[in-house]
TrEMBL record:
Species of provenance: Octadecabacter antarcticus 307
Transmembrane segments: 20-39
Species lineage: Bacteria, Pseudomonadati, Pseudomonadota, Alphaproteobacteria, Rhodobacterales
Coiled coil feature spans: 197-226
Protein name per UniProt: Band 7 family protein
Keyword Transmembrane found: yes
Subcellular location(s) of the protein: Membrane
InterPro entries listed in its UniProt record: Band_7, Band_7/SPFH_dom_sf, Prohibitin
SMART domains: PHB (SM00244)
Pfam families from the UniProt entry: Band_7
GO CC terms of this entry: membrane
Keywords: Coiled coil, Membrane, Transmembrane, Transmembrane helix
């Protein structure tokens, strides 16, 4: 015969009540914390109710119906999508392998379109952006020859960016496209390097020739200046000689006229210059200087 505790049913009921209260408390907490959510500043929230779209929530604290509502965050910040090993042919049929980065963002007012049409940003990029990048890159790069693509990369990037922006149709904003790297075959890159070295050498030779030309011109100018200076000196000397000759001729002419007009001028000059001393010796038959004993005196 088994023994049964008369208090056993009451204890079982107590355990059931405690369990029910615990579950109720858990559900209450779940409902409480599931009734609000926060959205970051660089995101927007797509609110779904029973799987259907009902709206977009802004950054900050927001409320929803627990269990029934679901929030899918959509990033609206600026992001970068990088494409590696993109192959394209240049205008002169040179194969290039490029690395391209695309900066993009989703406009905040187009978040609903992103979710309703594509379901996610990644799905949208695969359908809207990726094919256009591949196609437009090949088209635009084919308009440049290899050398121009390297030397004028800024214009190449601008043309590719313009083409992709025009081709992309959807809730996507292209902010910038950058060609990070362009690789040609080793053979072609070596030929470009050789060509550039040759151009540098040609430029150096031209600079040397120009410098020598300038030096020669300077030498000619200096020689011409020296010749002009010598000619000027010679002309000055000739003019001085001519003037001296004319002066001397004039003096001689004047002296001749004076002698012709005054025959005794020579004797007067001698007398004026005589120091009064007679010579100590005289040759027999000669006259005493400056003493004229002719009857005319």
């Amino acid at each position: 015969m088994s023994y049964r505790d008369p208090q056993q049913p009451s204890r079982d009921i107590s355990f059931i009540k405690a369990g029910a209260l615990f579950v109720a408390a858990i559900l209450a907490l779940a409902l409480l914390f599931g009734s609000f959510y926060t959205i970051d500043q660089g995101e927007r929230g797509v609110v779904l109710r029973n799987g259907g779209f009902i709206g977009v929530s802004d950054p900050g604290l927001n409320f929803k119906m627990p269990i029934f509502d679901q929030v899918v965050p959509i990033d609206v910040r600026n992001n970068v999508r990088t494409y590696s090993d993109l192959a394209a042919y240049s205008k002169d049929q040179q194969t290039a392998i490029m690395r391209v980065s695309v900066n993009y963002s989703v406009p905040a007012d187009r978040v609903a379109d992103v979710y309703n049409t594509y379901g996610s940003i990644e799905a949208m990029l695969m359908r809207v952006l990726d094919p256009q990048v591949f196609d437009e890159l090949k088209t635009v790069f084919g308009q440049f020859n290899a050398v121009t693509a390297i030397q004028d990369r800024a214009r190449l990037s601008a043309d590719i960016q313009s083409a992709i922006r025009e081709a992309v149709v959807g809730p996507l904003l292209i902010t910038n496209i950058q060609i990070e790297n362009i690789d040609f075959s080793d053979v072609y890159e070596n030929s470009i390097e050789d060509r550039m070295l040759a151009e540098v050498e040609v430029q150096r030779v031209r600079q040397n020739a120009e410098r020598e030309k300038i030096t020669a011109e300077i030498t000619v100018i200096q020689a011409q200046a020296e010749a002009d200076s010598s000619l000027a000196r010679a002309r000055a000397d000739a003019e001085a000689t001519r003037l001296r000759g004319e002066a001397e001729a004039f003096a001689i002419s004047a002296r001749g006229e004076a002698l012709r007009d005054s025959p005794n001028l020579v004797e007067l000059t001698k007398a004026e210059r005589w120091n009064g001393i007679l010579p100590t010796s005289m040759i027999p038959g000669t006259a005493v200087p400056f003493l004229d004993v002719s009857p005319d005196l």
